[in-house]
Amino acid sequence: MKLHKVGRRYGLRGPWVLRDVDLEVPRGALLRFEGTNGSGKSTLLRLCAGIDAPSTGRVTGRPRTAYVPERFPAALPFTALGYLSHLGRVHGLRGAEPARRATEWLERFGAVGHARTPLAELSKGTSQKVAVAQALLAEPELLVLDEAWTGLDRTARGILDRAVAERVTAGGTVVFVDHDPARLAGAADACYRVVDAGLRPQETAARAAGATTGPCVTVVAQGPPGADLPGAPTTAPGPDGTTRFTVPAAHSDTLLHALLTARPPWHIHAVTPEEARPDRTAPRPESP
């Protein structure tokens, strides 16, 4: 998808929220947008999702898209399961598939006990789980997340982190805004800051060749050479002919699944959480 000279303002004489924005959104990428409150981040995400149309410029090549808004409209005449099933049909699912996927995502987020609860009676946290589930069940080519982690408990935030990694690994693209600077730290392929109605590229840990940000997981495994593995892991020789793979924690489940389902499968020797991605550019201390 490409945004070419895109601008957006509300009203014929309103101020420009965004202007002359050029952006390429590649397939299989994770893109983060940052900016102060009111800078235009949500407007940019709505343009990416096709919720808003640009006032000037054009958006081309938009893939099949799902969107999690900053504010979920909970006062709708549905139960949680009814709403998710309905959105599944809107996304093109047929037969029993919408209800099946809806139930699976409610279970994954620990909210299946609220499947028959009216949306208006759900807590904020459970409402947010439903808001996220409606986008994920569609397995979209483009997933747009506007503060989607807000209101989720710690476990649910981790589940959403892993779901994002799964979408990217499957070839989908995810664009997101989140107030937590550590959110998916080290995993983003590109980061942009919305400022003065335009976009400014920012340095990312992925581009910094080993910037030390965010929790990581190191997997020590032995298997066939030349494997194409998800999560862009850093690699290093391990003991006894093994390989050490280090990825952001959000990608660890996906990496392990790829290793275990390879043909032939990798033999996993150890899985170790770490505080941060190793800095590959820093000099190693000399041995005493």
UniProtKB/TrEMBL annotation:
Cross-referenced PANTHER family: ABC TRANSPORTER ATP-BINDING PROTEIN ALBC-RELATED
Any one GO molecular function term: ATP binding
Positions of the ABC transporter domain: 1-221
PROSITE patterns to which the protein is assigned, alphabetical: ABC_TRANSPORTER_2 (PS50893)
Lineage top rank: taxon: Bacteria
ATP-binding as UniProt keyword: yes
Region Disordered, annotated ranges: 222-241, 268-288
Low complexity compositional bias, start-end: 223-241
Organism: Streptomyces olivaceiscleroticus
Biased composition, class Basic and acidic residues, residue ranges: 272-288
Protein name: ATP-binding cassette domain-containing protein
Family annotation (InterPro entries): AAA+_ATPase, ABC_transporter-like_ATP-bd, ABC_Transporter_VariousFunc, P-loop_NTPase
Keyword line: ATP-binding, Nucleotide-binding, Transport
Signal sequence, renumbered to the chain: none
